[in-house]
Design goal:
heterodimer; A: alpha/beta; Rossmann fold; seven-stranded parallel sheet; 8 helices; B: alpha/beta
């Protein structure tokens, strides 16, 4: 008997990196899962690789848009009859820069992709969960939701913002059987980080991508990067019925990086 | 075969309340256990409840006693050959009063049972964990390790100190396969709470029920947390995935602590 037997989860992103690990862990624990990505062909390929059969479905759409973030909730309800677990997971940067050089377009993208996306999917999910008086909202935040680093101001600001959103929403629905929590991973070498990392490293004033990995790693107590499996294990716990009393948490999976 | 099969855990204050719940969770996952607690009859009943034969043993003692803390680690290693997991559930306070009227004895007791026990146990356990490059240390701290309540300085100050110990030790042994975390639990209706709660409530000018209600009202869920909540998080921390989680002051408080 899995910990998430009979549950339905939706994950923005979810075809790779942290979201993918969550999807795989949720499937193992007996949940039905909707994952999301921009490219339908890649989505179908991810589904095939995950092997969830009828228990997994793909919702195509750009996770930085309102349409996708609301659509995934509606899609999950339509496909599987309800939504128990909303993972507001997708996020990132495209062409980050120090504040002085930050473009309006990048800033707007990061606000949409990292902050508004969480608001849109959370709001839609809560509207479905509140009448049912049960639900789990899990936001993929970051160690940068509590700290700050030069060169990634949009990421840092939006991750701080979603932590605030989590705390507010947790208080709003605390007596309704709904929990709202954030997972704050340290740096994980995901596909996305491999793609955008070299440019981010340059904007952070670092000599190389490897130097950026080293910087994050050195900040931790374990002197190592984290893994998507570690985040997924925490996600399973927070998503389970047993975690009814855990809410408003900013839960670090960062090898001891954050001071508080 | 559980995930903790072959692993050895020492749990100070493991015969009732949150300690026993953690013992049960670890036992279910296959760990071998050494429990300690003040009262032998509770030790016997805990072993009977766990019902895992040679995989559990009890040693009588008190977390305020340095010799006992060191003996618990020594006896764990003597019996099982090693120690992988240390959980300190010793805690409490007595003779609570506002600081202006707080006695040395009350503060000393609070520091001993909450903080010094954690230090003594940790130092002794690290002597075995560091050479084996593996360990999991978990303190039962409190929401009062992050925030303060008037009249409870003898509890609040040592729990903050436990959190400080968590952060420091996590940094010291982070590359050695050893993680150190504090569970910052909200109020639980446990034997310890029932023992020290009424007096604490009285010193705050309220009834025991009012005290529990006060804690519940501060949370988002408007209810107390349970020992099983702590056991669930402890299980995550001692799992393979726990390797990436250290130095944490993990809130298990229904959304009470502000950070």
């Amino acid at each position: 008997m899995g910990k998430l037997e009979g549950k339905v989860a939706a994950i923005t992103g979810g075809t790779r990196s942290i979201g993918r690990a969550m999807a795989e862990a949720f499937l193992r624990e007996g949940a039905q899962v909707v994952v999301n990505g921009r490219d339908a062909a890649k989505g179908e390929q991810a589904l095939a690789e995950m092997g969830g059969g009828d228990n997994i479905a793909f919702f195509a759409g750009d996770a930085s848009t309102q349409e996708t973030n609301e659509g995934i909730v509606d899609f999950a309800v339509e496909r599987f009859g309800k939504l128990d677990i909303m993972c507001c997971n997708s996020g990132g940067v495209r062409e980050t820069a120090p504040v002085a050089q930050m473009s309006d377009a990048e800033w707007a993208l990061e606000i949409d992709w990292n902050l508004n996306s969480v608001f849109w999917s959370m709001r839609r999910a809560l509207q479905h969960m509140i009448p049912r008086e049960t639900g789990r909202i899990l936001v993929t935040s970051s160690v940068e939701g509590k700290l700050g680093k030069p060169g990634i101001p949009g990421y840092v600001a939006t991750k701080h913002a979603v932590n605030g959103l989590v705390k507010s929403a947790a208080q709003e629905v605390g007596t309704l059987g709904i929990t709202v929590n954030a997972l704050l991973p340290g740096l994980i070498e995901t596909d996305i980080v491999r793609e955008t990392g070299p440019a981010s490293a340059e904007m952070m004033g670092l000599p190389s991508y490897e130097a950026m990995l080293e910087l994050f790693s050195q900040e931790s107590a374990i002197q190592a990067l984290n893994t998507v499996e570690q985040v997924a294990a925490a996600a399973v716990m927070f998503a389970s019925d047993a975690a009814a009393n855990l809410t408003g948490c900013l839960f670090a999976v960062d090898g001891g990086t954050m001071p508080y | 075969m559980g995930e903790l099969s072959g692993q050895v855990a020492a749990i100070c204050g493991g015969t009732s309340g949150v300690g026993l719940a953690i013992a049960q969770a670890f036992a279910n996952d296959g760990a071998s256990l050494m429990l300690s607690g003040r009262r032998a009859e509770k030790g016997d009943s805990a072993l009977a409840e766990l019902n895992i034969g040679d995989r559990a043993a009890y040693v009588q003692g008190d977390g305020t006693d340095k010799a006992h803390c060191e003996d618990l680690i020594a006896q764990t290693v003597a019996r099982y050959g090693k120690i992988d997991i240390l959980v300190n559930c010793a805690g409490g306070s007595k003779d609570n009063a506002p600081v202006a009227e707080l006695s040395d004895d009350a503060m000393e007791f609070g520091m001993n049972v909450n903080f010094w026990s954690s230090f003594w146990l940790t130092r002794a356990a690290l002597g075995h964990m560091i050479p084996q490059n593996y360990g999991r240390i978990i303190y039962i701290s409190s929401v009062e390790g992050k925030v303060g309540k008037p009249g409870l300085a003898a509890y609040v100050a040592p729990k903050h100190a436990v959190n400080a110990l968590t952060k420091t030790v996590a940094r010291e042994v982070g590359t050695l396969g050893i993680t150190v975390n504090a569970l910052c639990a909200g109020a639980m209706d446990t034997p310890m709470m029932r023992e020290s709660g009424p007096e604490a409530a009285e010193s705050l000018g309220m009834t025991y029920e009012d005290l529990l209600g006060w804690f519940a009202q501060e949370s988002a869920t408007k209810r107390l947390v349970t020992v099983e909540d702590c056991a669930m998080v402890a299980s995550l921390l001692v799992s393979e995935a726990g390797a990436g989680m250290t130095g944490g002051m993990i809130s298990i408080d229904g959304g009470t602590a502000p950070y």
